[in-house]
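anyone seen this seq b4? input:
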Amino acid sequence: MGIQEKIEFRPEFSPIELHEFGNVFDTVRARLPKLFATFWHRWSYIPGETPALLVYAEDGAVALCLVREDRSLYRAICVGLHGADPYSATGPTIAAAIRSVGL
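predicted toks r here
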C-alpha cells in the first residue's frame, strides 16, 4: 500500500472570485456592441465537484463557461452558439481567461 495524501485544494469558487467574475461580466457587457448584447445576458454559478461559472444568452443558451483548472489557472470556454465551433483559452486570473477568448 502506498501513502495517500490528503489534498486540500477546494474546487469551489470563493466569494472573492464570484465578485471578480461579476465585475468582469459587467465590463464585457458594457463593451459589447448592441448587436451582440443578447449573447451576454446573465450569469450563474454551478457549485459541486466541478464548479463552473456560466454566461447565458437571452434565449437561455450557454454562451461561456469558466472553470478553474488549478489554484492559479482558469479556463474560459466559449460555447458554440447557433452552430459556431466552441473554443477555449486559459489565463492566470478570471479577467485574463475571459480576455484570452477575445472578450
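Residues 43 and 96 are 18 Å apart (CA to CA). The chain has a mean pLDDT of 87. kinda curious what u guys think
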